[in-house]
Amino acid sequence: MTSGIEGKVVAITGASSGIGEATALLLAERGAKVVLAARRSDRIEALAARIAGAGGEAVAVVTDVKRRADLARLVTTARERYGKLDVLVSNAGISPISALDDLRVEDWEAMVDVNIKGVLYGIAEALPVFREQGSGHFVHTLSTAGLTIVPTMAVYAGTKNAVRAISEGLRQEAGETLRVTTVSPGFIRTELAGSITDPDARSGIQAGMDKIAISPDAIARAIAFAIEQPADVDVNEIVVRPTAQS
Which Gene3D superfamilies does the record match to this protein (predicted)? Predict the structure, then answer.
């Protein structure tokens, strides 16, 4: 029996590590053709080679989601290489969290540029393609930080909830043939803490990760679950957190 993933073309931003890397490996293992997007060319090229070595299909496209032209090149590469684009996983994100009193305005702007505008640029490039094809699936990585707002995470949570609202609006506008899924991870073992510029906030998040974080494979499986559903089934919201997370 073939899965609902086999043969699909899936572009993944933030594919150089963590959730993006785990998702690419799992989907490729299940027969998807994956288009790997990230800024670190060495990482995604090595990942593409690893997938190819295991018998899968992958291509690496250096992508900075802050640049719409890069998202355009990502979508174009998928279509030129594989003839279509079935799924866009907008997973790239940063979390330079801090107290609002710290006035780290540059960090706020960076989160808006990557976490919100990066997703919007992906929608702008993929939506016309999906309309033309008559099918397509957007998957957006959010965060449980957007479900329970805590100090130091106001702006980060705001960006994730902005994408939550955008995703719901997109779902309602999408019609009968396009699908939209949001996935909200809790503490996951990723490099996300490395983007935190405030040392106290970084150490606090890292301590939480060290204590209870689960593998990014858990999120990859959730994304795969949404993708593999029949075309008339749209899995809209998934929350995946460690059992120990409050």
Answer: NAD(P)-binding Rossmann-like Domain
Q: What is the pLDDT along the chain (246 residues), one digit of tens a residue?
A: 457 999 999 999 999 999 999 999 999 999 999 999 999 999 999 999 999 999 999 999 999 999 999 999 999 999 999 999 999 999 999 999 999 999 999 999 999 999 999 999 999 999 999 999 999 999 999 999 999 999 999 999 999 999 999 999 999 999 999 999 999 999 998 876 777 777 877 787 778 778 899 999 999 999 999 999 999 999 999 999 999 998
Residue 156 a catalytic site member: yes
The partner residues of 37 in beta bridges, in order of sequence, read 13, 61
- Residue 88 CA to residue 109 CA, distance in Å, equals 24
Catalytic entry in 108, 121, 130, 156:
156
234-15-138 Cα angle (round to 5): 20
Report how far residue 138's alpha carbon sits from residue 9's, in angstroms, rounded to the nearest whole number.
12
Task: Kindly report the pTM of this predicted structure.
Answer: 0.94
Sheet of 9-13, strand order: 57-62, 33-38, 9-13, 87-90, 136-141, 178-185, 237-240
